[in-house]
Each structure stands twice: as C-alpha cells, then as structure tokens.
Amino acid sequence: MAGMRVIRAVMLGAGSVGGLSTAAYGLLNGQSRRARMLIGKSTDLPLNADGVYLPDGTGPVTDEPDDALSFAVLGDSLAAGLGAETEDLLPGVHLVRGIAEEAARPVRLTTHAISGSRTIDLEQQVDVALINPPDLALVIIGGNDVTTRMRVGASAALLGRQVTRLQRAGTTVVVGTCPDLDSIEPIPQPLRTIASRWALTLARAQRRELDRLGVRSVSLAALVSPEFRQRPELFSPDRFHPNGAGYELAASVLLAPLCDAAGLIEGWRVLSA
User: Which residues are tagged catalytic?
Assistant: First the structure.
C-alpha cells in the first residue's frame, strides 16, 4: 500500500481538483501531519519465503520436484506482505500452500512484488518474471498510484499492458484490485474520504480494463476492506498495512479465484470491483 506518501499526495490532489479554500487546505495539511506521526515509517527488511511447497503444507523444500507448478506474486507492499510478523504469515505463503493442496502437486512460489511499487514499476517486475514465465500469477497494485496522483485511466492502461505481456507468455493472471483506503483510521476525516474515493475510482477502472482483456479480478475493496474496518486487530503496528492475520484473511478471498483460474476447481464466480 501507499505508506505515508498517500497523506501528502491525496491532500495536494484534493486541493488541485476541488479548489479548496485556504482554511480547508490548512485543515487537511494539519490532518496530514498528524497522520504521518501516528503511522510512522517502517524500517524492517522485507520477509521472503520463496521456494517449493508440497501438498501436505511443508516447505520450502530443498529439492525441487520436476512437476512443480510455478506461482508468482507481483505488485506492491500488499503483495509482498509488508507487516507480516513471520515468513509463514506472508500472503504468498498462505496462497502457495492452498494452491499446492488443491492441485495435489508441488508449487514453486516466486515473489517479485516490491513495497512502494506503482503500476508504472510493474514493467520491471514482469521483465524478471518473464525470464521463466510462471504458470499462475497474482498481481496486487494501485495503492501507490493514489499517492502519486497518477491519472486513473493511465494507471489502468499500464496494468492492462503488463497483464497482457504475462498472458502472451502463457501465464494465467488474477488481479486483486486497489483496496479501499477508508479503513486506514490514522488518516483523519475528511482526508480519508478523499483517499477512499480516489482508490475506489481506480479499482473500478482496473476492473474495466481487466474485463476487456478477459482477466479475472478480485475486489479487495468489496471483499477484504470491510473486515478491516470492523476488525482493527487485522492491522500491523503501523496501522496501515495488514499483519499476518490480515494477510490470511486476504488470502482466503484470493485462493479460490486463483485455483479456479488455474483450472483446479470449477464453478467459482469471482466478484468484481
């Protein structure tokens, strides 16, 4: 997700779009400073648990079986798992274990996601992924596009371009669309509402682009964000990113669409943004 840049950028965006008065701009400026102090800045090194996982839940294993399905995770800090307490609680690990169990075969997890990434940065991640194209890929991106005030249409088009590259290489792709920032309580009102509207507009644009390409999307705003609003214990100490329990919840929503897209289950209807 966005980190602290969302506070500053959304405030500036509100001023440029809405024509805020001096008093209103001063209010948002004060709110942004307060939110920055409350959320803080993470200095932890990213966790990683890439490798091959077996259907019985064990992994990563030392020796890679020949019949391993390959699964890649691309995107921003939500995809990378910033805020998870241990490697076992990373979203990619939750998902790879579920996929391996459903497939009844080993699955190799490779994480290309990098915290702070915007959709414009997705190209570099796809470049690396295409060196050895995965069978299945999950993309979660967009929160940082809100922070940098990137045009919604341009952001969605960039996403479509990179997803198409993966598809052409034979990769099945599922995308988790931009979550609703309304659940981030350290962002005070009315700044939080502005961020929320921006994020939801982007999520809808992402969905339209993915629908056009025939790519499955999963609405994190509809299926995950409401739980975070009701259950603050799902956040990590920065109160911005999920913790391990939060990532487990998100993985529980994403697992069935991923397995369905990979042809491992049938009859699952993916809810759109």
Answer: 77, 238, 241
